[in-house]
Amino acid sequence: xxxxxxxxxxxxxxxxxxxxxxxxxxxxxxxxxxxxxxxxxxxxxxxxxxxxxxxxxxxxxxxxxxxxxxxxxxxxxxxxxxxxxxxxxxxxxxxxxxxxxxxxxxxxxxxxxxxxxxxxxxxxxxxxxxxxxxxxxxxxxxxxxxxxxxxxxxxxxxxxxxxxxxxxxxxxxxxxxxxxxxxxxxxxxxxxxxxxxxxxxxxxxxxxxxxxxxxxxxxxxxxxxxxxxxxxxxxxxxxxxxxxxxxxxxxxxxxxxxxxxxxxxxxxxxxxxxxxxxxxxxxxxxxxxxxxxxx
Length: 295
Fold this sequence. Notes:
Number of helices: 9
Strand order of the largest sheet: 4-3-5-13-12-11
Order of helices and strands: EEEEEEHHHHEEHHHEEEEEEHH
Strand content: 25-35%
Helix content: 25-40%
Largest sheet: 6 strands, antiparallel
Distance between the termini: 31 Å
């Protein structure tokens, strides 16, 4: 099967489910809470769901970091397949590989400038954030799926315009309006370890009985403040394996790829979740959507 398949007004997206450090995990849900499970040791159940920390663009700095850390030329070329084979034009991927192969010792600035030029040649959206030190980003995952959905008439320009007008003036801003709280329980261990409980805001955008979006507030790892994490979730009995069969009742194979169906309402729900998550996400999402419908 191909990486992206259009069927029954849905995009079936190929995703890995066995990666140890992947943005995609499988969880078993009980009482609105999911615990990660090993899919190689636990047969899939109807209570299991795929959690995808989906992105809408990719920093060119990230591509550079991966390129710089690659151990050899084969690894450098593999970067572009790993990042883009599911979403980008094959001609663009080929051009990126050709550039990487002929510029093994290129510097960071020239690397990023060349990547930006190649992406623009193949009509890829490049967003430069002046409020983020002019860092450049390329359209990725969610926004690529929006672009494809528009091309295949699964979503209309009018529906995307409605999204752009959603949450006007940043009326809701989870990062700015909510916080993580910590409270003492009046308990100690051995009379010296004070026991506190921390509570993090969690918002669930339920799409239907099979899919939902979670917005979770976390402490920023390298800065002061909070960051909102957005996860698109789909129950396991709604996904298919590489031959179009259900995965329920069996364990996952090594390096297995499954196909997750994404409908118009899923794309809209995830985009809405980003828009209410923070002012920064809202600016990003609306800027990308505006670029997608500009023609």
